[in-house]
Amino acid sequence: MPSNPLPSRLRVRTVPVDVTGDLLTRIPDEVDPREVVTWLREGDGMVGWGRAVTVRTSGPARFADAESWWDRVRELAEVEDEVRDAGSGLVAFGSFAYSPASADESVLTVPRVVVGRRDGQGWVTHVVLDDEPWPPAHPAEMLARSNPRIDELDPVVETPGTVPAERWPEVVGRAVERITSGAVEKVVLARDVTVRHRDGDVVRVAPVLERLQRRYAATWTFAVDGLVGATPEMLVRLQGGRARSRVLAGTIRRGAAALHETPQGDPEHPVDPRLRLVSSEKDLDEHAYAVRSVVEALAPHCSDLQVPTAPYVLELPDVYHLATDLTGRMRSGATSLRLAAALHPSAAICGTPTAAAAAVIAELEGMDRGRYSGPVGWVDGDGDGDWGIALRCGELAPDRRSLRIFAGGGIVAASNPHAELAETEVKLTAMRHALGLATR
Ligand SMILES: C=C(O[C@H]1C=CC=C(C(=O)O)[C@@H]1O)C(=O)O
Fold first, then answer.
1. What CATH homologous superfamily does 10-434 map to?
2. Does ligand 1 lie within 6 Å of residue 249's CB atom?
3. 427 Cα to the center of ligand 1, angstroms
4. How far is CA 251 from CA 231, 237, 412, 440, in A?
5. 2 pLDDT above the threshold of 60
6. How buried is residue 184: exposed, middle or buried, by Cβ count under 10 Å (0-12/13-18/19+)?
7. How far apart are CA 222 and CA 238, in angstroms?
8. 95, 29, 368: which is closest to 227 by C-alpha?
9. What is the pLDDT of residues 129-177, one digit of tens each?
10. 431 CA to centre of ligand 1 in angstroms
11. Which one of 160, 260, 344, 401 has the largest count of C-beta atoms within 10 Å of its C-beta?
12. Which ranges form a coiled coil (predicted)?
């Protein structure tokens, strides 16, 4: 497990403060973009920066190694927490590779500073190591500073990804063949696109996050170790003994164009795309596989698991998704991180059966997904936390001068390869918009 040795002391102090305005503007501009962490929704949540302690893990044990490291950090921490809410006191932000075979490391990190706000209650957490003194600035003074360049996007250009868009329908067609031959029932295939700083400089993430949270306020805007995005899908939230999950699968594009997209579309008698989505056998099938995978993984940990019988339509700025919200009471004592590990990879991003779908993905996608589609989120000292699935996101290259942005879609027997290409394009809109690229 490659990680720096833990310090002999780790002191954590959380104080309540009045936090007004946009949390993202509190992140100092000079912070390395890979050291920025965020978890924001509807303006509330947490932002942080700096690294107090960090673990990097990889391979099949990437979750288990991170969990045992977190247990040691929890034992070591001396916590003074005047707020005592989920996320106050000791907290770590994490992001895990989708595949055990990924060359990309998974990461769990305790920032030096966290600024949080929930339901009008603000707080600041500082972390110091060994005998370091507490930072001299009073939290209120620190919060008075605000990043003057938050609206300044870096100029970027887009270049093709691993599989060029025009070849994507062929790749999807091969997946449909695997499904009709019976090798697999559902498989989720994803593609990437590379975006580079036009002048070869470092791409700053705070302005990207700012645009994501403004347009996609109802999603979770995240940043962990250079992975930035706005996910609509909550793998698991654990708070006060209750687990929740929002499963998404099944998508239709918003807007007038969607009305004419299928061969059956009649421009004279447009059908609301939401109605089309809830009555589409193909999308309902795709959704049912995803729900089943989450129910199977949550059931051993929960009593009283509530599973709605039919999905609802989640409305996002570019797309509608079929969505199911599940809730259960915890009986296993697992932390949110343990639950995220148990739920990954769900059939919303891998397929059914899991092992067969993972093999088809490895064979057909031709790329390493890195941390796209892996769990991303945070865990606090009590084990509570939020873990989303890293979707609608991009991952900064180690040199921070480019990022790969990703989008995928669930393939079932009835999938149309050209419609699947269009679906990945519309899902790429979130990151293209946030980076200031004209959307197609
Ligand atoms: C794999 C992605 O979306 C998943 C989540 C929602 C809907 C999906 C779909 O309809 O295919 C995917 O399962 C992605 O955004 O890259």
1. Anthranilate synthase (3.60.120.10)
2. yes
3. 8
4. 14, 23, 13, 18
5. no
6. buried
7. 18
8. 95
9. 999 999 887 788 878 888 888 889 999 999 999 999 999 999 999 999 9
10. 15
11. 344
12. none
